[in-house]
């Protein structure tokens, strides 16, 4: 997996000094979301590889849909 370039984070704090959020550059946020989506796709593929699915030919699908 690609590594996200480290950038300076800016934290948001509440009245008592607890961290409540973080500010990111839009480019960093978009890159992070892209990486998360790639990881979710990878995880889904790995899960599907471990299961056995019945496959159908195009002709079988067409026959089921159109009754031919």
Secondary-structure map:
Elements: E1 10-13, E2 19-23, H1 26-49, H2 58-66
Antiparallel strand pairs: 1-2
Keywords summarizing the entry:
68 residues; alpha+beta; two-stranded antiparallel sheet; 2 helices; 2 strands
How would you sum up this structure, described in words?
Strand 1 (10-13) and strand 2 (19-23) form a beta hairpin. With 68 residues, this protein is of the alpha+beta class. The protein has helices at 26-49, 58-66; strands spanning 10-13, 19-23. The radius of gyration is 22 Å and the shape is rod-shaped. Strands 1-2 form a two-stranded antiparallel ribbon. The protein has a domain at 26-51.
Order of helices and strands: EEHH
| Helix percentage range | 40-55%
DSSP strand tally = 2
Strand order across the largest sheet: 1-2
Which spans have pLDDT < 50 for at least 5 consecutive residues?
none
The general outline is: rod-shaped
Q: What about the largest sheet?
A: 2 strands, antiparallel
Radius of gyration: 22 Å
Q: What integer is the average pLDDT?
A: 86
DSSP strand content: 5-15%
Structural class by helix and strand composition: alpha+beta
Distance between the termini: 47 Å
> What is the overall number of helices?
2
């Amino acid at each position: 997996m690609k590594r996200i370039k480290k950038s300076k984070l800016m934290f948001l704090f509440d009245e008592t000094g607890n961290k409540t959020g973080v500010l990111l550059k839009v480019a960093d946020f978009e890159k992070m979301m892209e990486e998360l989506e790639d990881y979710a796709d990878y995880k889904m593929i790995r899960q599907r590889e471990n299961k056995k699915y019945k496959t159908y030919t195009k002709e079988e699908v067409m026959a089921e849909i159109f009754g031919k």
